[in-house]
């Protein structure tokens, strides 16, 4: 059972949350909050009651026991775009609000959570299993409606397709991300085709222009600042880049992650 | 065949590869410096070997003509492995390096 409530405007949201939690025996309580002070109060309450809590922006998810899924699918071993296609086919046949349990490998984790969010479904929980795979619970949502209202650009999606073979573009990728951060824009970097070469361990150490710091120093700085750097799974495979020789702070992702970013109305892509 | 004719052809190849190499050097950055330096030195010594009749200069020129293609190996192997979408840009220079290597060995054997 999943219950969704809003505590916006309440001074003591924990009173309402407590009364609902006392009635729920199993399931998930999704609480829409106003901000930090409400999140803290609800988190403290859930911790006291020994419930698992997840916070995603202003949404607090409280897990009460196990959530029962309507269907289950195992996509371990499938590579991009396999997992998202298999899961999308199953979700297509399910009713809105039904829950699908997905067992997936780390390679498909970002694609599934980001990609499914992009097509209107909701990732309720992500749990790492003992064998290193992940259990993802997804609630089927309604298809996204087109929004024609104007939006302000809040995120920059920097796509590099040339790699270290073009030093100037490689420098630009990470410098632009840094500038975006300073301009209060959230940057995300996606490396594909030859751009995937930047993700190989030690590769950025070899690039140095006299007028700039070593490329690897820029990369480390950007990673430290929390910028997400995705590497296309297909391009990585073509170039023999695996988790073993992947640079620290980089994450392998696939087409669903790529398209999810490109389809966000508040994101502007920059091709390099 | 006269060694000076081969050296003249090598000089032409070296000059051509300096031009094609400059484009890739600008693109790839400083990691091609050892290759570019050896290429310039090979050009200077090949030119000198044509002007001055000195066997030491001649053998240094041959040595540099062999070394120049070798200094690009590690970089180009990596590029061919991970950045093969861009290999078209490097192909002219790679072609020149192949010709230069054969001319250098040929010049050495004929001398």
Q: How many domains of chain A, as an integer?
A: 3
Oligomer: heterodimer
- Count of DSSP-assigned helices of chain B: 5
Low-confidence stretches of chain B: none
Kindly report how far apart the N and C termini of chain B lie: 9 Å
Low-pLDDT stretches of chain A are none
Radius of gyration of chain B: 14 Å
The shape of chain B is elongated
Indicate the topology:
The complex is a heterodimer of chains A (272) and B (111).
Chain A: E1 2-6, H1 13-23, E2 27-32, H2 36-48, E3 52-56, E4 59-64, E5 71-74, H3 82-93, E6 99-104, H4 106-118, E7 122-128, E8 134-139, E9 155-160, H5 167-182, E10 186-191, H6 215-224, E11 228-232, H7 233-238, E12 250-253, H8 255-263, E13 267-271
Parallel strand pairs in A: 1-2, 5-6, 9-10, 9-13, 10-11, 11-12
Antiparallel strand pairs in A: 2-4, 3-4, 6-8, 7-8
Helix pairs in contact in A: 1-2, 3-4, 4-8, 5-6
Chain B: H1 3-28, H2 33-51, H3 55-70, H4 73-82, H5 87-110
Structure overview:
The complex is a heterodimer of chains A (272) and B (111). In chain A, helix 7 links the parallel strand 11 (228-232) and strand 12 (250-253). With 272 residues, chain A is an alpha/beta fold. Chain A has helices at residues 13-23, 36-48, 82-93, 106-118, 167-182, 215-224, 233-238, 255-263; strands at 2-6, 27-32, 52-56, 59-64, 71-74, 99-104, 122-128, 134-139, 155-160, 186-191, 228-232, 250-253, 267-271. Chain A starts with a strand and ends with a strand. The model of chain A has no long low-confidence stretch (mean pLDDT 86). Chain A has three domains: 2-64, Translation Initiation Factor IF3; 71-139, Translation Initiation Factor IF3 (2-Layer Sandwich); 155-271, DsrEFH-like (Hypothetical Protein Ychn, Chain: A), CATH 3.40.1260.10. With 111 residues, chain B is mainly α. Chain B has helices at 3-28, 33-51, 55-70, 73-82, 87-110. Chain B is elongated, with a radius of gyration of 14 Å. Helix content of chain B is 86%, strand content 0%. In chain B, helix 1 packs antiparallel against helix 2, helix 1 packs antiparallel against helix 5 (87-110) and helix 3 (55-70) packs antiparallel against helix 5. Chain B has one domain (3-110). Chain B is built from five helices and no strands. The A-B interface holds A 161-168, 193-194, 196-197, 200, 203, 206-210, 239-241 and B 27-31, 78-79, 81-86, 89.
């Amino acid at each position: 059972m999943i219950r969704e409530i809003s505590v916006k405007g309440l001074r003591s949201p924990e009173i309402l949350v407590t009364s609902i939690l006392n009635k729920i025996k199993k399931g998930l309580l999704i609480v829409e909050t106003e901000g930090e002070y409400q999140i803290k109060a609800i988190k403290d309450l859930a911790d006291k009651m020994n419930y698992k809590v997840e916070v995603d922006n202003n949404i607090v998810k409280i897990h009460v026991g196990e959530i029962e899924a309507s269907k289950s699918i195992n996509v371990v071993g499938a590579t991009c775009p396999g997992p998202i296609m298999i899961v999308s086919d199953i979700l297509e046949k399910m009713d809105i609000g039904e829950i699908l349990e997905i067992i997936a490998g780390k390679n498909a984790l970002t694609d599934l959570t980001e990609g499914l969010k992009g097509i209107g479904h909701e990732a309720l929980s992500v749990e790492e299993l003992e064998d290193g795979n992940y259990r993802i619970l997804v609630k089927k949502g309604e298809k996204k409606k087109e929004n024609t209202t104007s939006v302000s650009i809040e995120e920059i999606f920097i796509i590099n397709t040339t790699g270290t073979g073009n030093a100037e573009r490689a420098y630009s990728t990470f410098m632009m991300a840094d500038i975006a951060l300073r301009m209060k824009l959230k940057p995300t970097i996606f490396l594909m085709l030859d751009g995937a070469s930047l993700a190989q361990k030690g590769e950025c150490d070899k690039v140095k222009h006299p007028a700039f710091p070593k490329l690897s120093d820029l990369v480390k700085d950007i990673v430290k600042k929390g910028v997400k750097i995705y590497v296309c799974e297909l391009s990585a495979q073509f170039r023999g880049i695996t988790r073993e020789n992947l640079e620290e702070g980089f994450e392998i992702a696939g087409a669903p992650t790529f398209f999810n970013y490109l389809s966000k109305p508040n994101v502007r892509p920059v091709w390099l | 065949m006269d060694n000076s004719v081969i050296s003249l052809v090598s000089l032409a190849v070296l000059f051509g590869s300096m031009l094609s190499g400059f484009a890739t050097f600008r693109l790839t950055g400083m990691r091609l410096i050892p290759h570019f330096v050896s290429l310039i030195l090979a050009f200077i010594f090949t030119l000198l070997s044509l002007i001055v009749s000195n066997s030491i200069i001649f053998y240094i020129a041959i040595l540099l003509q062999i070394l120049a293609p070798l200094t690009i190996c590690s970089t180009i192997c990596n590029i061919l492995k991970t950045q093969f979408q861009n290999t078209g840009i490097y192909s002219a220079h790679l072609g020149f390096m192949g010709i230069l290597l054969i001319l250098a060995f040929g010049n050495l054997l004929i001398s």
